[in-house]
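Appendix B. Raw example, untouched.
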Amino acid sequence: MDPAEYVDALADRADALISASRIDLGAAVPSCPGWSVTDLLTHVGTTWGWAATIVRTGGRADPSAGVEMPGPDGLIDWAEVRIADLLEVLKAADPDANCWTFGLPRTPRFWMRRQANETAVHAWDAQGATGSHGPIEPDLAADGLDEYLTVMLERLVKRAPDGWDGESVHLHRTDGPGEWSARIGPDGSCQVVREHTKGDLALRGKAETLYLWCVNRAPLDDLEVFGDRSIAERWTGQLLF
């Protein structure tokens, strides 16, 4: 996806998240245990502001610095201001400028992608709390899956390196092109390739379902499963997102 597509996806999914939040800020979020919609929107709005500050300045920022939280009656308006600012900053940014990130590339492209994908997942969370889940567009879901595997997974593995000894997981998208294989080593290493290989565990399904399973939101039984199911249990039990 190109920068404009990410910004458009972010705007669309942010609108979906805020619309779902308007229904009931006090609703529990089943996919985020212990959180209400208020907690979810507060988290996402804070992240929007953090990303905007980083892209605007190019430097690292404290997510909570300068954040003045409104009361419950002002939360929706606060979130709308935060997303409007982020969208303005991203549209004005040179996508290839130097910028602090926690992954590659070290440019605003990282934040365009990260915010589009994170907001898509949290819009899905909010919709599930206050009504019914709307779909994540297939190519956006496939991009989110690719980002999860190539950017986020190694960070998660390093937090919980024990219990892995070179096991491999192959994921095969069925609603468009896309295959990925991830091998997790005992030293916290994680090797990901975008190709068909044999895996100790293989999963097949739509991009959205694969992505939601990776981020602990879709059950394994929503996918075709081949091989060692215990690896899937370790994945969702240890690689918390």
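End of appendix B.
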